[in-house]
Every structure is written in C-alpha cells, then in structure tokens.
Amino acid sequence: MAGAEPGGVAGAAETDAEVPPPGEEEMNGEEPEDTQSGANRKQEALDYFRAKGQMERAREVLRLFSAAKKAASIYPPNHEICINSFTAFMRSFNDYLAWREDFSLRIVGEEFFYEEKLMPRESILYYPLIGELKNKDIGGITIAAGLTPGEFVDFLYLLNLGAEELRDKGGLRRLMEERDVGNITLDEPGTWEEKSFEIKERDSAREEYFDAVDVIRELADQVMTDRRLSVSKANRVVGVMLNRVGENRSAVLGLATIKNYDEYTSFHSVNVLILSLALGSMLPLDRSSLMILGTGALLHDLGKITIPQSILNKTGPLTTQEWQMMQDHPVKGADILMAQPGVHPLSVMVAYEHHARYDLAGYPKVNRKERIGLFSRIVEVCDVYDAMTSARPYQKARTPDQAMRVLVKDMGTAFDPLMVKVFIDMMGLFPVGTLVRLATGEVAVIYEPGESDAMWPRVKVIRDPEGGAVEPRIVDLVYLKDKIGETGQAILEALHPASLGIDPQEYL
User: Fold this and answer.
1) Is residue 231 part of a domain?
2) What is the rounded distance in angstroms from the CA atom of residue 91 to the CA atom of residue 97?
3) In angstroms, rounded to a whole number, what is the distance separating the alpha carbons of residues 106 and 441?
4) Based on the domain organization, do 496 and 421 belong to the same domain?
5) Average pLDDT of span 258-264
6) Same-domain pairing of 325 and 230
C-alpha cells in the first residue's frame, strides 16, 4: 500500500458527536482575537451563502433564457408553450433583480462567465448557444431591470433569425433599435479578454493557495516555539478554501495538483484540505461540519514537526526506532491539537485516526470494534491520494489514474468503499490536472471532469501528435465519440509531466 509513509493509511468512523453552529467554536477560550475572528467568520459565511445564492439565480435565469429561446424557435409567440416559457423567464429574472440591478453574461473563448466567474456546467449544457451567439457577433448580453415582456419576446424572435438574414437586414443591433429593444445590450466579440476573467480568477485562487501554505508553515513554527497555534488563522484558511469549493469545485481541485518536492508537508497539508473539503461537499455536509473537517485536514500531519527531516526524507529503509517515531506522529499531533482552545474534538480525531485504516489495521491501534470517524475516513483517502501522486525521496510520483487504481484495490481494507466511490465520482477516472495522450495522438491536460461520464472529460490540448506545442484549446471529449465510436477510448494513457517537461498547473 503506497501512502504518505510506508505501511499506513487513514480511516474513519461515523460519530454522533454534535456539531456546533458556525461561530460557536470560537467561544471556547482561544486568544482574545477570536471574538473578532468569530464575527469575521460569520460574515464570511453570510457572504458565501449570498454569493452562492446569487450564482444559483443566475444559472436559473440562463436556463430559462435558453428554454424560452428554444420555444420561440419552434412556436409562434401566442402558443401556450411560448407563453409559459416567457412567463417563467420574466418571473425568474424579476426574482434575480433582488440581488443585482442587471444580468450580464459574457462569452470568453468557448465558455460563459457571470460576474467574472466561470460557469463550467452551463458552458457545456449550452455549448450550442455559445456557438450561435458568437456566430451572430455577440460577445456578451446585459439585460437591464426595466426589461418588459414585449421587449424580451421581440429580442428572442430577432435572435432566432439566421446569421445571413440578420446581415441582410443590417444586423441584430439595428433591428433591436428599430423594435425599441432598449433594455438588452449586446457586447462585441472579444470585448471581454480572457485575462480579465479566467486568468484573473486563476491568479486569485493560486494566491489564496500559497497564502494557505504560508499559514501552515507559520502554525508549525508557532507550535515548535511554544506549543500553541492560532486556531483563528487555520479557520480563516479553511473558510477561504471552502468558499472556493462552493464557487467552482472543479477549478479548486486543479489547485491540489500543485506539488513542492522540498516543502512536501506544507503543500501536502493544503492539498489534503482542498480534496477533503471537495469530497465532504459531495456527501453533502453542511458548512459548519465542513469547517471542522477542514481544520482536521489542514492540521492532520501537525505531529510530524517532532520528526527530524532526515527521517522524513530518508531514501532507505527506516530503522525500528525511526519507524516508531513515524507511527507516533498521529498521537503527538492529536496531543498538540487537544491543548489548543477552540479546536473541535472531531478535528483532533482526524489527526489521531488518519493512519488507523478502515479495517483498524493501521496505527495507532484503536481499541474498539466500530469504525473510525467519518471525517477521518474522508481525510485518509485524500491524504493517501495526494501522497501517492507526489514525488518523495523514497518514492516516485504515481500518475493520478494509477493512484485511483490503488484506492480501488484497497477498498474495504485500508479505505471506506463509499468514500472511494464518491472520491472517484468527484475526480473522474482521470482527475483534473492529469496529463494524457488522446486517441488523436495529441497531448492534453484534464481540464474538468466529464459532466455525465468520467471517461469523457473536458481537456485542454497543448501538444500536437508530433509533440509540438500548440495554442491551448479546450475540447470536450464527448465530441470525439463520433470519430472513435461509443466503445472506443478517447484517452489512451496518462503521462508523467516531468518526462515531457510540462507543468499542468500552467494550463488550469
């Protein structure tokens, strides 16, 4: 079994322990700054739910816009189906106006963006709509609060005219002026450059990732100095990453492909945090529970600060004494966390149990018959997956698909079968960031999981069949089915990035 160290993997068991509401854990007597940080976290939670609610309403507006446009392309405006579709859109749009003064949708490349946030699922579902809008020289649509049902209906029927007919009549914008459609404005193609959206969002997420790495370093230094750590700082990191998971789980999973050979433990801790929050959100757990899970995931390896680097990075076999030190780190980590005011007991259990294994055959020995905790079972899968896909002095990095096969092989012994199944459903057979060779011979990076089939993800093609660099382009592999057949393989193999001198992070 490959893992963070030889011989052990984490596991976890259901618990009936009560989870406090958001903010309650701050009142357990940490340093004085926690009163303010508790208020800050409550505000962060409110901001998170507002942003999530706004995005959900935007998705609904787009869905009903697409449905109304389709109805208008088939039936006359007085048909019952059209009337129902138009009414549903206007109702949803008016509800949305409680959050924003207008609705703005942008097209960047082959994707929809709302409020500078990528809409990955909608970009796939409404891919034909994106193509049609681009074909009619539309780079974005803004719908103002004053929109009337009549304007909306007129716009739909104008939009459904063919591109050639629109050109013959002077263009869509001119026709909109003639019909007095003034509350809908259209952007020219290319108005919204990729840098203003995708790159800006990517850079912001990466900055938050490296901030989290800095915090875990700082916390380790604090513990080494006086055995105390700032729980509020750990909670802030967890809150920021949890917000990212809520906004775009696939994009955040791409961050977990960042590795650092020389600072393995710090980067590993943040990667396990991201993977655990993403997996927990699939179950689903509420925000309060995810915060507790995240704190345990971020600090699960804190006990390693007591182990010399010469042992952590040793290439040869460990002596009996060295191996005992490795096996002691979960207990020492739990002891450190128990001494910190404000750390939830379930977070402590994650540090204690993350190598105990699902079948209780790991370490430390758990003297009970029931399974280890749920949060520990989540973290064990994420811990071992990230460890297996990271290069260490004593092991080569496995490709993500190889790591997935190990998880499957050890289901029911090292790992909770349900957690492995949900993890694979979340990541896909080829997780985000995997470098692959396609059936076309091209080299690509997995960009997003498949919407309905893990074998058909979205990829970013970066090399031609001869190995030459190409302008990166996003391809939905489901569209290769016509070329290779339903039973064919779109992906031939996973590749080691180092062997080709490629950093997948550059393309995510």
Assistant:
1) yes
2) 10
3) 33
4) no
5) 82
6) yes
| 311 inside domain | yes
Q: Are 145 and 182 in contact (CB under 8 A)?
A: no
User: What is the C-alpha separation between 308 and 325, in angstroms, rounded?
Assistant: 10
Reported as a pLDDT band with limits 50, 70 and 90, residue 284 is confident
Give the domain-ending residue among 192, 214, 234.
192
Residue indicated by tokens 């997995």:
446
- Count of structural domains, the chain: 3
430 token code pair: 């080829």
Tokens found for residue 429: 């057979």
Query: What SS3 string covers 327-384?
Result: HHHHHHHHHHHHCCCCCCHHHHHHHHHCCECCCCCCCCCCCCCCCCCHHHHHHHHHHH
Q: d(Cα 131, Cα 213) in Å, to the nearest integer? A: 40
CATH number of the structural domain spanning residue 393: 1.10.3210.10
> 324 to each of 223, 314, 321, 331, how far by Cα in Å?
21, 14, 5, 12
- What does the alpha-carbon distance between residue 84 and residue 89 come to, in Å, rounded to a whole number? 9
Q: Domain end: 192, 227, 253, which one?
A: 192
When comparing pLDDT for 49 and 292, which is higher? 292
Q: Which amino acid is at 152?
A: F
Is 195's pLDDT higher than 50? Answer: no
Residues 439, 484: contact at Cβ < 8 Å?
yes
- Tell me: cis bond preceding 345? Omega within 30 of 0 counts: no
Residue 230 sits at φ, ψ, to 5 deg, of: -85, 100
Do the bridges between strand 443-448 and strand 117-118 make them parallel or antiparallel, or are there none, so unpaired? unpaired
Q: Does 297 share its domain with 255?
A: yes
Same domain? 261 vs 304:
yes
Give the rounded percent of residues in the chain with a pLDDT score beyond 90.
Answer: 53
Residue 16, in any domain of the structure: no
- List the domain range (segments joined by +) for residue 70: 50-192
Q: Measured between alpha carbons, how far is 117 from 198 in angstroms, rounded to an integer?
A: 8
**Same structural domain, 203 and 177:** no
For residue range 461-497, list pLDDT tens digits in order: 999 999 888 888 888 887 776 666 555 678 888 898 8
Is residue 223 located within the same domain as residue 250?
Answer: yes
Contact 142, 192 (CB under 8 A): no
Do 370 and 252 belong to one domain?
Answer: yes
User: Residue 14: inside a domain, yes or no?
Assistant: no
For 80-113, the pLDDT digits (tens) are: 999 999 999 999 999 999 878 899 999 987 888 8
3-state secondary structure at position 98: coil
CA 231 to chain centre: 24
Q: Is residue 264 domain-shared with residue 131, that is, in the same domain?
A: no
Q: Please give the Cα distance from 352 to 334 (Å, whole number).
A: 5
- Please state, in angstroms and rounded to a whole number, the distance separating the CA atoms of residues 220 and 229: 8
